[in-house]
Amino acid sequence: MKNILITNVLFNKQRKDILIEGNLISKVEPAGTIPAEGYDKVIDGSSKAIIPGFVNSHAHSAMTLFRGVGEDVPLDQWLKERIWPYEAKLDEEMVYWGAKLACIEMIKTGTTTFNDMYWHIKGTLRAAEEMGMRSVQSYCWMDSMDESLFEENKARLQKAHRMSLDWSPLTTFAISPHAIYTVTGKAFRYINSYARDNDLIVHTHLAETRSEMDQSERDYGMSPTEYLNKLGLLGPNLVAAHSLWLSSDDIALLGANGVNTVHNPNSNLKLASGYKFKYNELRDAGANICLGTDGCASSNNLDMIDSMKTAALLQKVWRNDPGAIPLKELMDVASYNGARALRINAGRIEPGYLADVALIDMNRPSFVPGHYFLANLVYAANGECIDTVICNGKILMENKYIPGEDLIYKKVQEVADQVVDYKKKKKA
Fold first, then answer.
1. What Å distances lie between residue 299 and 52, 64, 178, 191, 312, CA to CA?
2. How far apart, in Å, are the Cα atoms of 66 and each of 102, 177, 291?
3. Do both 285 and 369 map to the same domain?
C-alpha cells in the first residue's frame, strides 16, 4: 500500500495537510500537523489548491476522433449524415486510440471518472484501465427500431455483462439504450428488467431536442419522460443525459423517482438543441443533477471546468438571476453528484472517501487576486490550470505531464485520418 502526503495545500479557504493511504483519503488536518516523513510520496502544495476529481457523467470518449467534423448542422442531420457513417468504419483498435486521447484530455483537465456510451467497449475499457481512470463502460443498444435485432442484442448484452465480471474495481458495467427514437419499447422493457435483476446502471439520452419531444408526442401520445416512465425505466439507477425538454409533469416524475439527470451545456448550445435546462426545478423536485461534456464531435472538448462555466452563465441569463446555480452547488454537480449517480464513494475531500483528486496550479493570472477560489476556478480559469491528478490513490499526472502522451497524439492523428480520410475525398 502506497501513501501520499500533500502538504500545505489550499482547501476550503484554509491550508491543509492531506494524507492518502492506499486508495483512500485518511487524514485532512491543519497545515504543518502531519510530519512530512515516512511516505512514498510527498507533494508540496504551497502553491496549489485541491479539489475533488471531476466526474464526467455523460461522454462518448472515442469521438475525439471526430473533433471538428460535422460542424454547423442540427443534431438529426449531424448524426445521420456526418457521424453515423464515420462510426460505421470504426473497429476496436480505432476506438482504443480515440479513447486513449480522451483519457489524456480528461486527466489534463481534472476529470478522474467518466460515464461512457460508445461502441467497441473493449477498446475504451483497455484505454481507461491503462490510463488509470475510473469509468463506467456500457453495452450500447441501438436497434434502429427493428425488433428483429432483439435476440442478437440480448445475447450480446449478456455476453458483455459476463465479461465485465473480470474487470478491475476501477470499472463498472452499465447498459446504454441509445434513445427512445433508436431503441424499441420491447428492448427498453427488457433492459429495465435485466438492469434491475442485476443491479446495473442504465444510461440513455432523454429529451435532448424539440424534435424528439414532438416525435414522442406523435408516436406515443406522451413526452419522452412519460414514455420511459410507462416502460418502467425511471428510478435511481437511470442516468438520463440532457433531460432538456421537460414539462412540469416530467420534472415531477424525474424527481419523485430519484433519476440522475446530466446537463451537457456546451453540446446543447453547439447543436442548438436548447438552453433552458431546468436546474432549480429538477433539484427542488428531488432529481440528482450531474454534469457532462458529451462527445468531442459536439462539444469539441472534454474540459469540465469549461462545462461548469457555461452551465452557470446559462442559468443566470435565461432566468435573469445572477444568483442562479451558486458555485458551491456547481462543484457538487461536477463531482459529488456524478459520483453518487455512478455509485462511487468519491467527490469529497474527507477521510474515508476515495483518493480521486486534482491539484490546481495557483501561480496563474486567473487566480490572482485570490478573493474567492471557486469564482477564479470557474469564471477565470479553464482546465489548463490542473497541475496534478490522483485517481484511486495513484498519480496519473504530475506537473502537467502524463507519460507517453506525445506518442498517443501521433497515433490518434493517424487513426483519425483513416476514419475521416479527407485526402480521398479531395481526390474524388
1. 23, 10, 18, 29, 16
2. 12, 22, 22
3. no
pLDDT digits (tens, 9 = 90+) for 25-55: 999 999 999 999 999 999 999 999 999 999 9
Rounded Cα–Cα distance for residues 292 and 308 (Å): 9
d(CA 29, CA 9): 10
> Could you tell me which residues come within 8 angstroms of residue 141 by beta carbon, excluding any fewer than 6 positions away?
153, 157, 175, 176, 177, 178, 183, 187, 191
Distance CA(245)–CA(261), nearest Å, equals 12
Query: How far apart (Å, rounded) are the C-alpha atoms in residues 199 and 174?
Result: 9
Residue type (1 letter), 75? L
Report yes or no on 274 lying in a domain: yes
The reply to whether 96 and 222 lie within a common domain is: yes
Structural domain count of the chain: 2
Confidence of residue 423 (pLDDT cuts 50, 70, 90): low
Same domain, 107 and 150: yes
pLDDT in tens, 146-178: 999 999 999 999 999 999 999 999 999 999 999
Same domain, 20 and 97: no
Quickly state the pLDDT bin for 70 (edges 50, 70, 90): confident
